[in-house]
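ok here's DNA polymerase III subunit delta, seq below lol
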Amino acid sequence: MKSTTIKTGREIMKINELKKQLGQQKIAPIYLVLGEEDYLIQQAQALFLTLLAPEERDMNFASYDLSSDSLGAAMDDATSVPFFGERRLVWLKDPVFLTAQEAKGSPNQDVASLTAYLNHPLDSTVLVIFAKVPKLDGRKKISKLVQKQATVVDVQKLPPAAIESALTQLLQTKDYQLAPDSKELLIQRSDADFSAIVANLEKLFIAADDKVITRQMVAELVSPTLEDNVFDLVDRVLHRDVKSALALYQDLLLNKEEPIRINSILISQFRLLLQVKILAKKGMTQGNLTQILKVHPYRIKLALKTVKQFSQVDLRQAYLGLQDNDYQMKSGQQDKMLLFELFMLKFAS
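and the structure came out like this:
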């Protein structure tokens, strides 16, 4: 099928639209893949590779890591004619010079060659710039030019509202079933990060012989993060379950977690619970709380569920006790493990 070069500049598309256009051989000369969702970035890369037959890739595909590779060499490659093929495919990764990030250890790139190419791209080359950032630095001339000349592929982190629907769609595509309580645990242990969810699903797909993923599978195969463990610790503290709370605290120490860090996350969790409790009393909804507190909606959802079970007095007492622990830990007044034990005994009484 004969390819059609499409006009670039200011067009923003999602992965599905990119797939559709490349499938119809409507190919732009320059793309900017912008965003931080690893799963979507990998999908974009796979789609771009379909532009070349497997036997052509050795000769007509090149990928440059601009944190170490020369931009000039990459642009020399982009301006070369295809070797026994219809087109060349050139990737530019980690273009720090387009962002507001500091280029630590990266070579000083001469952007003149890229500027010249952006103004006069070759029809026989597909140049793809992968910028793993939320946005380019709009103060830089070269960044403005890239955004003007390139077709932008949006691979931003999926918002919380889109994660569940994207997960459901992925499971349907793979023909797997995941119960609601299993789904909630998977999202929680993946920090509501879709790329992490997809990575964890690979393990679960292998374990689910009958294509049904149970909560037990998620609990056993998806390791909890420190924040997950601290969330469980908060629950045990609030239920005044001294033995269980101390056992989990000891497990965290055995896993080389620092007591000051554990205490700091506990303080953060109780502060959030107090804020949610107070604001929810004033009629604030989950959406309002997310905007006001600048906290991930999934954390707000869990906090709302928790504060319904406990009084503001309990939450405040725990928060102040942990604040006192923080001061004593940092001033070295007592053994850090003993401080948590004393806190639990005092709170439970």
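fwiw The longest strand covers residues 125-131. kinda neat tbh
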